[in-house]
Design goal:
Blueprint lengths: L1 E5 L6 H15 L3 E6 L13 E5 L13 H16 L3 E5 L1 H14 L6 E6 L2 H4 L8 H10 L2 E4 L2 H11 L6 E2 L15 H7 L5 E6 L8 H12 L4 E6 L5 H10 L6 E5 L5 H5 L3 E4 L8 H8 L4 E4 L4 H4 L6 E4 L4 H12 L2 H16 L3 H17 L7
Parallel strand pairs: 1-2, 1-4, 2-3, 4-5, 5-6, 6-7, 8-9, 8-11, 9-10, 11-12, 12-13
Helix pairs in contact: 2-3, 3-5, 8-13, 11-14
C-alpha cells in the first residue's frame, strides 16, 4: 500500500505513535509518506520506503495567522497525485482530517481514502470548544474510517458529538524489543550514586498532566526512602514546577531533563513511574515504562484503567489523591519482593501491546476500508 501519514511532529504521544507506525509499515514493504510542517521527532535515519513532504506555510501580510490547514490540504493533493496514494492516515481530527477532506474534494479522481485516528486531546479538549465542535464532528463523520486508541476515547467521542459512526479501537503500542530492562550503569551512577531509588515522570508539562502532583508525591516518598525524581519533557508548567521543588527543599533531588529523543535508558534504570494526570486517553508513556519493567502509580482517568492492572502492574488512585499515591509508591519502593512481582507483571502486560500485533491490526483495518471502495470486476 501507499500510505500518507499526517501528524504533529512534536514530542506528544500522537506524533510518536504515528511515526513508529509509519516506520513499522515501511519495514513491512509499504510505501509511507509523512506530510507535516516539520520532520517528526522520532523519524531519524534513512529508510528506503519512507519519504517526508514538508508543508510550507507562507506568512503573507494580509493574514494575521498562518493558513496551515489549507497549506496542508494543498500538499496532500500534490502528494496523492504524484505518489498515487491509497489512503491518508490522519492522527488528530483537527486540522489533519479536515485538510484530508479538502484534499479529497480537490483530487480529480478522489479514490484516496481518509482514515482518522483519535488520540485524546482533539476530542476531550479542542473539539469541545464551541468554535471547533462543528468542524470536528464533520471531519470525523466524513472520514472513511475512524479509530480510537482506547474504549474510553471511543465512548467519549460518540457521546460528546452525537456521532453515529463505526469507530474501531486500536490501542497504542510499544516495541518491546527496544523498550526492555537493560543495564544502565551511566544513568544509575549519575542519578543514584548511593543506591537511591529512581522515580520518573514524562510529559509535556501542561496543567492537565499535574506534574506538581508528581513532585508532591515524590516529596512524601523522600521522607521515607532516599530517591531521585527525573522529570522528562518541557512545557508551560515547568517553571512553576521548578519553583515548587525549591519551595519544598527537594530541588537537589529533582532533576529536570527537558525534552529527550530517547528515554529508553532512563526508563530502564527507573524503579517507579508516576502518571497523576487529570486526563489520559491511553497513557503511552506508562506503557513504555511498563515494557522496561517499571511499575506505574497513576490516576484512574480515561484509558489508564484499560492499560494498568491495579494491584499487579502498579496502582491506581483518584485524581489529586497525593497521599494515596505516595503510600502506593512507598509500598512498592520499600518492598523488594513485591516490586519484583509488579515489575514482571508490568512487562507481561506490555507484551500484549507489542508493536507487531498492533501494526497488523492497522494493516487489516486499512484493507477493510480500501475494500469498501473496490469496484467489482465486470
Amino acid at each position: 500500500m501507499k500510505i500518507g501519514i499526517t501528524c504533529y511532529p512534536t514530542y506528544g504521544g500522537s506524533g510518536v505513535v504515528a511515526t513508529e507506525l509509519g516506520k513499522a509499515l515501511a519495514e513491512r514493504g509499504h510505501s509511507v509518506h509523512f506530510i507535516s510542517y516539520a520532520i517528526p521527532m522520532r523519524l531519524s535515519g534513512f529508510m528506503g520506503n519512507i519519504m517526508f513532504h514538508e508543508v510550507e506555510v507562507s506568512n503573507y501580510p494580509l493574514f494575521d495567522f498562518p493558513l496551515y490547514t489549507l497549506a496542508l490540504a494543498s500538499k496532500m493533493v500534490e502528494v496523492a497525485q504524484y505518489e498515487k496514494l491509497d489512503l491518508f492516515h490522519c492522527h488528530y481530527a483537527i486540522p489533519h482530517a479536515t485538510s484530508a477532506y479538502l484534499a479529497r474534494q480537490m483530487l480529480a479522481t478522489p479514490n484516496t481514502k481518509v482514515i482518522t485516528t483519535l488520540h485524546g486531546t482533539d476530542i476531550t479538549l479542542v473539539g469541545l470548544e464551541p468554535s471547533f465542535l462543528p468542524v470536528m464532528k464533520f471531519s470525523i463523520e466524513q472520514s472513511d474510517g475512524v479509530t480510537a486508541v482506547s474504549r474510553f476515547l471511543k465512548e467519549k467521542t460518540l457521546t460528546n458529538y452525537g456521532i453515529v459512526k463505526e469507530i474501531e479501537v486500536i490501542p497504542n503500542f510499544v516495541d518491546t524489543t527496544k523498550y526492555q530492562r537493560t543495564p544502565c550503569d551511566d544513568v544509575t551512577r549519575h542519578f543514584a550514586p548511593h543506591g537511591e531509588k529512581i522515580v520518573v515522570h514524562t510529559s509535556n508539562f501542561r496543567k492537565v498532566k499535574r506534574v506538581e502532583d508528581a513532585i508532591h508525591i515524590f516529596n512524601e516518598v523522600r521522607k521515607k526512602i532516599p530517591g531521585t525524581l527525573l522529570l522528562v519533557g518541557d512545557g508551560p508548567e515547568r517553571s512553576q514546577c521548578e519553583m515548587l521543588s525549591r519551595e519544598l527543599g527537594i530541588h537537589e533531588h529533582v532533576r529536570f531533563l527537558g525534552k529527550q529523543t530517547d528515554i529508553i535508558h532512563i526508563l530502564a534504570a527507573a524503579d517507579l513511574f508516576l502518571m497523576p494526570s487529570q486526563s489520559e486517553s491511553f497513557g503511552l508513556s506508562a506503557l513504555e515504562a511498563m515494557a522496561c519493567e517499571v511499575p506505574v502509580v497513576s490516576s484512574s482517568v480515561g484509558g489508564l484503567p484499560e492499560l494498568q492492572v491495579h494491584g499487579q502492574t502498579g496502582y491506581i488512585a483518584e485524581i489529586g489523591d497525593i497521599d494515596r499515591m505516595a503510600r502506593y509508591a512507598i509500598e512498592l519502593l520499600s518492598n523488594p519482593s513485591k516490586h519484583r512481582l509488579f515489575a514482571k507483571a508490568a512487562r507481561e502486560r506490555a507484551l500484549e501491546f507489542e508493536a507487531s500485533k498492533i501494526v497488523t491490526q492497522y494493516e487489516r483495518y486499512y484493507e477493510k476500508i480500501l475494500a469498501r471502495s473496490a469496484v467489482p470486476a465486470s
